[in-house]
Amino acid sequence: MTTPHPDRSLALRGVDGPAWSPDGKWFAYIFDGRLWRVPVTPEGAIAGAPIRMTDELADALNWASDSQSILYLGVDRLKRIDLTGKVADAHPHLAYTPEISSERIVIHAGRLIDVVSGTSQRDMDIVIDGNLITSIEPHRAREDGARVIDASGQSIIPGLIEPHTHMTSNFGERLGRIWLAMGVTAVREPGADPYDALERREAWVSGRRLGPRGFMTGGLTDGSRVFYGFANSVTTPEHLDLELERARWLDYDLIKTYVRMPDHVQKTIVARAHQIGIPVSSHEIFPAVGYGVDAVEHLRGTSRRGYSPKQTEMGFSYADVTDLLAKSGMTITPTMGLSGGFNLKVLRDPAILAHPVYTALFRDAERAALKAGVDRVRQTEPSLARSVDAMGLAITDIIKKGGRITAGTDSPFIPYGLSFLVELMLYEDAGLSPADVLRSATIWPAAVLGVDKHLGTIEPGKLADLVIVDGDPLARISDLAKVHAVVSNGRYLPRADLMME
Ligand SMILES: [Zn+2]
Q: For position 14, what pLDDT does the model report?
């Protein structure tokens, strides 16, 4: 269908949600983020100039059956606009309240792990009031009516933070339980439909559904010719203003720019996002490092430059990459599992697929498809192993030089939760100490999100997100497979309960 908007580069720019009016007289669509309509003849030809209907961002347009008005999502509200331009709220503003437990619980920790120092203490009590850790003290008998959780035979680590996943409500309610059952109490989502992500964040925080804390952005903020459906084609300064306005209204936790966004625009976005107090991540390392991008996703990753700015064809990263990361303080989410590490690890250790959360909460067809994909890489195992080893060298080099990595996966390309565990095992295989591996999944991603005052370690005054595991992850990262229970925002949730279908 040819979209009737008289702009020569229209085909390259984001046009969304086109819809004919039921009476056939109008064609409405979203362009540069706003709602337009243009008159058309009964044959569908343009019969006049296009009319911009909104000054604000519009989404999800829908004609009324009488063709006299359009229902749309205006930034954070459902609205109705008629053909004269009169706007009305179509629905009262929806509100929610965070669910915070009023219970006091005391967790008797056999081994309490401090990820910052990489040490542990024996027989400690973690006292939690509501959703806050209020004190940490040597274990003692109590008669104050607090609920005591006996984890004297187990280890306690801070709740894990998965910093690179893309989610959709199509996956269903089990998604939140998968995260928690794998010990993940916070997720960072660098790219999603903003309203889908917002619904998820609010449903989880309000207790409507069980799930971790969600840190979100909207679509990938991109230039022209976008690749993913949830990317936002932003090609004018006015549209960028509106997108940053939406970031404030919907309370984004980060901005993710993508690979078609020109460098000078990315630079503007970083400055503007920092003004409203949120970090920016992209796939870019240089010149991005020079204008203060906070994080970079993927050691490989897509690039518009015709070559990978971070890796050679054989998968190696040299000092021009690792020094920049280590010295700038910019973090990287290597996604080693995404770049072949997951398939390789599972090929060599098929028992990973018997993880109880994976077998309980993923469907037979999903597991069969994954298994078939893993089997297919058998022929290329030697070359895959070489490139995975090369990525391991880059990661250890960054850490040795004093840099920080964050352990994301880009799920659902590889399965939610299970891929995160494998990512952490790959870092250990590459030679990182278990303490560094734990930092990459706790305090470092918390810092990248700007929430390390509240999350990432177990300390009085911090939010009560922690994981009770059998074994000792400070000795063996693979013990993270043995999550016994999580405490998520002060709620104690045994894994067995989370896994019920
Ligand atoms: Zn991604």
A: 59
Question: Could you say which of 3.30.70.270, 1.10.1760.20, 3.40.50.300, 3.20.20.140 is the CATH number of the domain covering 157-498?
Answer: 3.20.20.140
Same topology between domain 10-89 and domain 157-498: no
C-beta atoms surrounding 266 within 10 Å: 22
How far apart are the CA of 467 and the centre of ligand 1, in A? 26
Nearest alpha-carbon partner for 266 in 246, 245, 296, 308: 296
Per domain, the residue ranges of the chain are 10-89, 157-498
Give the Cα separation of 21 and 42 in Å (integer).
11
Closest C-alpha among 103, 105, 108, 73 to residue 89:
73
- Distance from the CA of 301 to the center of ligand 1, in angstroms? 9
Q: Which residue ranges in the chain fall short of pLDDT 70?
A: 1-14, 501
| Topology (CATH level 3) of domain 10-89 | N-terminal domain of TfIIb (2.20.25)
Query: Ligand 1 centroid vs 144 CA: distance in angstroms?
Result: 47
CA of 330 to the centre of ligand 1 (A): 18
**Which value, in Å, is the radius of gyration of the alpha carbons in the chain?**
24
Distance 55 CA to ligand 1 centre (A): 31
Please give the structure tokens belonging to residue 108: 């008797």
Burial class (CB in 10 A: 0-12, 13-18, 19+), 244: buried
- Environment class of 472 (CB within 10 Å of its CB; exposed 0-12, middle 13-18, buried 19+): middle
Provide the pLDDT for residue 144. 82
CB distance 438 to 479 below 8 Å = no
| pLDDT attached to residue 220 | 86
User: pLDDT for 369-424, tens place per residue?
Assistant: 999 999 999 999 999 999 999 999 999 999 999 999 999 999 999 999 999 999 99
The CA distance from 220 to 331, in Å, is 19
Contact 232, 244 (CB under 8 A): no
pLDDT given at position 17: 77
Q: How far is the CA of 459 from the centre of ligand 1 (A)?
A: 31
Structural tokens at position 322: 């690792």
Number of CB atoms found within 10 A of residue 123's CB: 13
Rounded to the nearest angstrom, the distance between the alpha carbon of 59 and the centre of ligand 1 is: 23
Is there a contact between 131 and 490 (Cβ–Cβ < 8 Å)? Answer: yes
CA distances from 85 to 25, 82, 152, 161, 278 (A): 17, 5, 66, 45, 34
Q: What is the pLDDT of residue 4?
A: 47
Separation of CA 423 and ligand 1 centre (Å)? 15
pTM: 0.93
